[in-house]
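Hi V.,

You were right to ask for the full record rather than a summary. Here it is.
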Amino acid sequence: MPLTLVNAGPFLTGVVLGVVLGYSVKRWGLGRHLASSISHNMEEMRQSVRGEQHKLVFVVRMDLKMGKGKVAAQCCHAALSCYKKGLKMAPKSVSAWEAQGQPKIVLKCDGGLNELEQLEKTARALGLPTKIIHDAGRTQVKSGSETVLGIGPGPASLIDKVTDYLKLF
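Predicted structure:
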């Protein structure tokens, strides 16, 4: 289609704006600042990945005899709650955890409610984000039952101090 006065207006406007924007970026160094900022953020992420491993752990009460689907749903509730708490408490740990592929581990708690609460207390004392999930009671367990404990995201070495003796689910 040949360039006419009718469709040349938007084209010329785009060219002029592009030239002005390009000159402004070069003249005032905005491009270097933006590139430097991006480079700094990328390096920070690389360092967090090279640094200590991070993870998010779910501790499931085995005495409640929940089905696999119920456990999965409760772990999902814990994941979201811990993630939101982690963003407030330890945003750098959350960033490192995300950069490392968001590892998640599900563990068994054979000691019932007392053990679950003790694990939560220990994790909290170490400064880790925690959340005990209370079931709504619509399906398999009584309303208000404490079903799953989420710990993290946080440094694996700290979480292991709390959960290293527990077995995989």
